[in-house]
Amino acid sequence: MEPMSKSIGEFALDIFKEINSSNSDSNILYSPVSLAASLSLALLGSKGDTASQIEKIMLR
């Protein structure tokens, strides 16, 4: 479980940095766990290039 939690933590930080870079003067509220869960469900239903792209994003 540790590699997965590390991956989700890194994913959450990457998303925060991206959101913050375009909204640095405002408050930010998001749920990294919800984003990870949604992408995990999308990954289960995808294949080919789409699955590869989701894996690349989530498993950096």
TrEMBL record:
Taxonomic superkingdom: Eukaryota
Domain Serpin: 8-58
Cross-referenced InterPro entries: Serpin_dom, Serpin_sf
Pfam families associated with the record: Serpin
Matching Gene3D superfamilies: Helix hairpin bin (1.10.287.580)
Name of the protein: Serpin domain-containing protein
Source organism phylogeny: Eukaryota, Metazoa, Chordata, Craniata, Vertebrata
